[in-house]
Amino acid sequence: MNKKTKARLRRARRSRAKIRELNVPSLSVHRTGKYLYAQIISADGKNTLAAASSLEKGLVEGEGTKKNMEAAKKVGAAIAERALKAGIDSVAFDRSGFLYHGKIKALADAAREAGLKF
């Protein structure tokens, strides 16, 4: 594991410890070079209550658009819609140690605009 990955995981561990103290469902985001994933995890951390990703057919259309800002906005709106349908309106944002800018920020802003509170 390289130094950059270790630093990201260290940041993630710190923020997840704080989220566990809050005892609320969390919106966990993971980003790869190709795709963006988001899921709502229960307060006890055992169940996934809702999920969305740029890998899903029908959510993000077109070649080469799965890893851009538009895809992040669509995933954010989709996860918020699915969370509200599942009865969850407030979550803690778990960015998994990724910096809060770019696609991560676009996903969070889209989820807030769609009605999710965090």
Explain what you see:
It contains three helices and four strands, in the order αβββαβα. The protein has 118 residues and is an alpha+beta fold. It has a single domain, classed as 2-Layer Sandwich (Nucleotidyltransferase, domain 5). Strands 3-2-1-4 form a four-stranded mixed beta sheet. α2 packs parallel to α3. The termini are far apart. The relative contact order is 0.20. The mean pLDDT is 93.
Total E-strand runs? 4
Domain module count: 1
Helix/strand/pairing class, anyone? alpha+beta
**What overall form do the CA principal axes indicate?**
globular
Q: Main β-sheet: number of strands, strand sense, barrel status?
A: 4 strands, mixed
Low-confidence stretches: none
Q: For the terminal residues, how far apart are their CA atoms?
A: 32 Å
Briefly, what is this?
By secondary structure, the protein is of the alpha+beta class. 41% of the residues lie in helices and 18% in strands. It is globular and about 40 Å long.
Descriptors for this entry?
118 residues; alpha+beta; 4-stranded mixed sheet; Nucleotidyltransferase, domain 5
